[in-house]
Amino acid sequence: MNNPAPSSPVLSVRNLAVEFPTRTNVVKAVDDVSFELYRGKTLCVVGESGSGKSVSARSVLQIVDRPGRIVGGEMMLTRPDGSSVDIAKLDPRGKAVRAIRGREIAMIFQEPMSSLSPIHKVGDQIGETLRIHFGMKKAERRERVIELLRQVEIPNPEKAIDRYTFEFSGGMRQRVMIAMALACNPSLLIADEPTTALDVTTQAEILALIKRLQVETGMAVLFITHDMGVVAEIADEVLVMYRGKVMERGPVDQIFHAPQNDYTRMLIGSVVKLEKKAEIRVDREPVEMAPDLLLDVRNLGLTFPSGLKAVNDISLAVSPGETLGVVGESGSGKTTMGRCLLRVYDAQEGVINFRRADGSVVDVRTAQGEDLRSVRREIRMIFQDPVGSLNPRKTVADIIAEPLKLARLAKGKELDERVAALMEQVGLDPAWRERYPHAFSGGQRQRIGIARAIAVKPRLIIADEATSALDVSLRSQMLDLMMKLQDEMGLSYIFISHDMSVIRYMCDRVAVMYRGRIVETGKTEDVTSAPQHAYTQALLSAIPNPDPRARRMQDRVRYQESAS
C-alpha cells in the first residue's frame, strides 16, 4: 500500500454542521466548521464547555450522541491506498464506517472506564480489536497485545495483560486506552480531553507518550481540550471554537502571540492570569503566622483497614485570614487529609486543634456531640463536583437554606432574605432561587456550593479541588470570588488541588504532599520559585507552559522515590 502524499491531508472537514433537535427548537452544536489534519501533525481544537469541540470530534467517527445528527458538510478521509471516502455520507450503523473505526481512525476518551469493560481482562479487550479487523488467532493476538502494552510503557506487560481495568490507576487505564487505539496502526488518532481527569504529573506523561508514538508512527492527532497550557505544549495548529462556530484558526505560535479574535485573547488571558499571583493577593499585607492559630494539626495519622497509611504524621497550621494550599498528585492523601479535618474520616493518631469564634480550642479528632456540631458549623467544605454535592430534587433556595435551618439561625421571611443575600454575594440572581441544579451551568453550580458553605458564616473553608472541573476562564472567576469573600468575611481557606498554577494564584503558603506525607512546606512564592524537594521540582516542571516558544515537556524533571 502507498501512503498518501505528505502534502495531502489525512482528513479534510468542510462546512460541518451538526444539530440537536429539542422540544421547542433546534440547537446548532456545530455550525460551518472546517479543518484539515496532516500526517505527523497535531491539531488542537480548544474551547470551553458547550463550544462544540467534542461533537465535532465524534462526528468524524459518526458517533454523535442521539438525537444529534450531521446535517451538512463533508469529511473526506484519505485512505492508506490513496483512495478517499466522505465519512459524512456513510450510514452511522453501516459496515463501511465500522471498518474505519479503530482501524483507520481511533479515539481515546476523557474517562477510560466509560470505554473499558470492568469484567474483561485488558488483554482480551485490546485483542478483540485485532480479531475484528485482522482476524488474528489467539496466540498471535496475545503477542501483539504484549508488544502494545510495552509500547505505551505499562510495567510488566506479560502480567498486565491478564489484569482487569479496575486494578490500574487512572493514568495506567489511559495507557490501556491508547494501546487499544493504536492496535491497528490508525492514520488518525482523536483524543477527546484524554488528560482532563489526570493529575499534572500523569498528564505530562500521557502527553509525552502520545507525542512519542506520533513521531514513531506518523499518525495525525486531533486533540480536543479546554486547557490552553496543553495546547501550547503539543499543538502544531489550533482551532478555537465558541458556541459551535470557529472563532480562529492558525499555527500555534500565531494563536498565542498574535491572536486575532477577542475570545481567543480571553482564553489565553485566563491561563496567563493564573501563572501570576492574584492582584488581590499582591495588594494586601502578607499573612504572618499568628500566635493564636486558627487550626493547628499535629502528627495526624490515618491507616485504612487494608493497611494503607493514607495520612502519615501530618502537621500543619492555618492562621486567621490565611489561605494554605495543599498540593499533590492523585493518591498523595491530600483529599483524605482534608476529610480527616472535618471528621468525615476518623484519624487514629494526632491532634486537630481548632480555635472557635468564642476563643475556646477544641480537638476535632476527639470532639463529640455539641462540640463536634459547632465545629462543623465553623469549618465548611466545598467539593470538586458540584453536581454530586447538590441534591437534584431540591431548589437552589432549599439547598442554600439547609445549613441555616439545621443550625436554627433563621426561618420564615428572614430565611428567605438570607438566601437572597447569599445568592447576590456569590454573583447569582435571587430570581433563580426556585430553579433546580440541572438548570445551571457548572460555574453557577459551584457558586451555589459556595453560597451553601458560607451560609453559617464559617471561619475556615476546606476547598477540595473546587475549581478543577471548570473551564479556565470560569476557574479564575471562581478564585477571584473566593478571595473577595475572604476579604469580606475574614475567612481562612485550606485549598486542596493538584494544579500548581491555581495554588500559586490563590495561596499564601503551600504544603506539598506525596504518598501520605508532607515533603515540603513554605511561602508559596518561595516553594514555587526555589523548590527544595525533588518531588516539588518534578511537580512544577510538569505544569504545561502557556507559551509554545517555551515548552517544558522535554525538560521535565522525573521524581523517583529512593528505597528507604
Automatic annotation (TrEMBL):
<dbReference type="GO" id="GO:0005524">
    <property type="term" value="F:ATP binding"/>
</dbReference>
<dbReference type="GO" id="GO:0005886">
    <property type="term" value="C:plasma membrane"/>
</dbReference>
<dbReference type="GO" id="GO:0016887">
    <property type="term" value="F:ATP hydrolysis activity"/>
</dbReference>
<feature type="domain" description="ABC transporter">
    <location>
        <begin position="295"/>
        <end position="540"/>
    </location>
</feature>
<keyword id="KW-1278">Translocase</keyword>
<comment type="similarity">
    <text>Belongs to the ABC transporter superfamily.</text>
</comment>
<keyword id="KW-0472">Membrane</keyword>
<dbReference type="Pfam" id="PF00005">
    <property type="entry name" value="ABC_tran"/>
</dbReference>
<dbReference type="InterPro" id="IPR050388">
    <property type="entry name" value="ABC_Ni/Peptide_Import"/>
</dbReference>
<keyword id="KW-0067">ATP-binding</keyword>
<dbReference type="InterPro" id="IPR003593">
    <property type="entry name" value="AAA+_ATPase"/>
</dbReference>
<dbReference type="InterPro" id="IPR013563">
    <property type="entry name" value="Oligopep_ABC_C"/>
</dbReference>
<dbReference type="Pfam" id="PF08352">
    <property type="entry name" value="oligo_HPY"/>
</dbReference>
<dbReference type="GO" id="GO:0015833">
    <property type="term" value="P:peptide transport"/>
</dbReference>
<dbReference type="InterPro" id="IPR027417">
    <property type="entry name" value="P-loop_NTPase"/>
</dbReference>
<dbReference type="InterPro" id="IPR017871">
    <property type="entry name" value="ABC_transporter-like_CS"/>
</dbReference>
<feature type="domain" description="ABC transporter">
    <location>
        <begin position="11"/>
        <end position="268"/>
    </location>
</feature>
<keyword id="KW-0547">Nucleotide-binding</keyword>
<keyword id="KW-0813">Transport</keyword>
<dbReference type="GO" id="GO:0055085">
    <property type="term" value="P:transmembrane transport"/>
</dbReference>
<keyword id="KW-0997">Cell inner membrane</keyword>
<dbReference type="InterPro" id="IPR003439">
    <property type="entry name" value="ABC_transporter-like_ATP-bd"/>
</dbReference>
<protein>
    <submittedName>
        <fullName>ABC transporter ATP-binding protein</fullName>
    </submittedName>
</protein>
<keyword id="KW-1003">Cell membrane</keyword>
